[in-house]
Structure to design on (359 residues):
């Protein structure tokens, strides 16, 4: 990662007013677009002047930020469901912080908010673009994980995209990740009779069973996914939540019952590919088994937060929903945390702690 001592004012950065001492903050910018797997050379740590919030705006001191698989696609210059990051500009993504200056009476100083201007220590944004979070329900960082996009993704995938019915056998790939660690537990709450998850390595496999509600854990590094899934579900599966693609999807297609349901949530195995990746060799089974394969983007389902949050908060309170985080400290650690997450180095949600709470 390259480091620059200072820079001009970036788009969407934040700060205090000119009436007081000038405030500076650090942010991570896209230094160059990667070809294949990204590396430290694709990021730049920049110190920049932080401007004052204008009318209706707030200044947020970010305390937590998220790194997520979808961000890899935004590093490429191609059309997708979200615009690409701009070379030389700060990256963005989910963040939690405390309001330290406000020109919006409805969001006063001291309020904890979530927003999408992560990858920086301070952010100025319209108050309407921030969501006030209740830290009496759960720690602030939970709103980037189990109470945030990953939790809602798992919930919508298993209640709408590929709904779980009582008695179903459910398979989840990347089951130790931010979405998968929640999905296994939700599948159980929705009546699944058996929940199977895949993860990389024996320690993750152990935690799937002991912490995250899975009946069986498959270590995809230990052998063929198809062979292990057939042994774990000899009578087949009903639902597959796909976070990986490629060999996992192929194995699931072989194991699914007639009328089985697949939620296509992610395909992290191909995000660094430099050429088209062949699809499953057995895709014809989607026809002969009359399978339902549906893609989903959580951004199409933001209205489901109102339904999900009270449920998840209650489950957290009574201990029936367990969550995990992998934390790295400091804005300078954000690129490494992102690269580590892409390589499967996290259990639960990968987060970067930028600062302690003000209070």
């Amino acid at each position: 990662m390259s480091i620059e001592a200072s820079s001009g004012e970036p788009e969407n950065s934040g700060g205090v007013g000119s009436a007081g001492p000038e405030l500076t903050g650090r942010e991570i910018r896209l230094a160059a677009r990667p070809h294949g797997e990204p590396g430290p050379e694709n990021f730049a740590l920049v110190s920049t002047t932080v401007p004052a919030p204008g009318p209706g705006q707030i200044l947020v001191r970010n305390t937590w930020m998220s790194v997520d698989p979808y961000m890899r696609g935004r590093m490429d210059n191609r059309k997708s469901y979200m615009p690409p990051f701009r070379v030389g500009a700060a990256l963005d993504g989910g963040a939690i912080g405390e309001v330290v200056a406000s020109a919006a009476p409805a969001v006063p100083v001291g309020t904890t908010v979530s927003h999408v201007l992560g990858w920086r220590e301070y952010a100025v944004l319209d108050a309407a673009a921030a969501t006030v979070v209740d830290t009496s329900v759960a720690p602030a960082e939970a709103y980037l994980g189990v109470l945030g996009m990953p939790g809602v993704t798992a919930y919508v995938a298993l209640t709408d995209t590929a709904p779980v019915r009582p008695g179903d056998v459910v398979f989840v790939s990347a089951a130790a990740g931010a979405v998968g660690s929640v999905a296994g537990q939700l599948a159980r709450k929705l009546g699944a009779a058996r929940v199977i998850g895949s993860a990389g390595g024996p320690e993750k496999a152990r935690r799937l069973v002991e912490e995250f509600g899975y009946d069986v854990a498959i270590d995809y590094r230990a052998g063929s996914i198809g062979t292990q899934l057939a042994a774990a579900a000899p009578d087949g599966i009903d639902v597959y939540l796909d976070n990986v693609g490629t060999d996992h999807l192929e194995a699931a297609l072989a194991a699914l019952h007639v009328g089985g349901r697949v939620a296509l949530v992610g395909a992290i195995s191909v995000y660094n590919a430099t050429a088209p990746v062949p699809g499953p060799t057995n895709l014809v089974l989607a026809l002969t088994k009359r399978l339902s394969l549906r893609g989903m983007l959580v951004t199409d389902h933001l209205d489901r937060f109102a339904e999900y949050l009270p449920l998840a908060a209650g489950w957290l309170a009574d201990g029936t929903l367990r969550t995990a985080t992998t934390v790295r400290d400091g804005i300078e650690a954000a690129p490494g945390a992102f690269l580590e997450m892409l390589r499967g180095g996290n259990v639960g949600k990968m987060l970067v702690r930028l600062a302690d709470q003000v209070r």
